[in-house]
Design brief:
This protein is an alpha/beta fold and 174 residues long. It has a single domain, classed as Flavodoxin domain (Rossmann fold). The chain contains 4 helices and 9 strands. It has helices at 13-25, 68-77, 104-114, 155-169; strands at 3-7, 32-33, 48-54, 85-91, 118-120, 123-124, 136-137, 140-141, 144-146. Strands 1, 2, 3, 4, 5 and 9 form a 6-stranded parallel β-sheet that branches. A 3-stranded antiparallel β-sheet has the order 6-8-7, with no helix packed on it. Strand 4 (85-91), helix 3 and strand 5 form a beta-alpha-beta unit. Helix 1 (13-25) crosses helix 4 and helix 2 packs parallel to helix 3 (104-114).
Length: 174
Amino acid sequence: MAVGIYFATTTGKTEDIAERLHGILGKANPPKDLTDVSDPNEFKELDGIICGIPTWNTGADSERSGTAWDEMLETIGQMDLAGKKVAIFGLGDSSTYTENFCDAMEELHSYFKKAGATMVGYVSKESYTFEESKSVIGDQFCGLPLDEDSESDLTDTRLTNWAEDLKEQIPSLK
């Protein structure tokens, strides 16, 4: 079995992070733009799925990414992804949108969870500067939040540490 990396992007930043993550992980399939996914049932062929999502529709209750993920949410929620490990990374701007930092991660997280996937890759909120985020569950983010606008100097370390955690949580990445 394999691990797939999927992303949707507006500015190219989410794609860049997906490529960088692929380079760190090594054993994952090359990143794939969600707009190139003609049949989401390909998720069922994987034992791990890593998803990259930006937050564009800040403050929205739904369709928070403003990307192809928004059109696929309902489909994902109706799938049977039991036994699949899913991790999410999100991009946002913690200084300009401090009350909605990386909100889209939570929306994607909830639909994959509804599909029965085992969610992995949670990250402590402790080293982040923001006011609110729908992506915080308890004292952790439901994935890896990244800020390429205001904290890009922290991205490499955060990405490397997260990749190491994923290698422990998704067996086929070892």
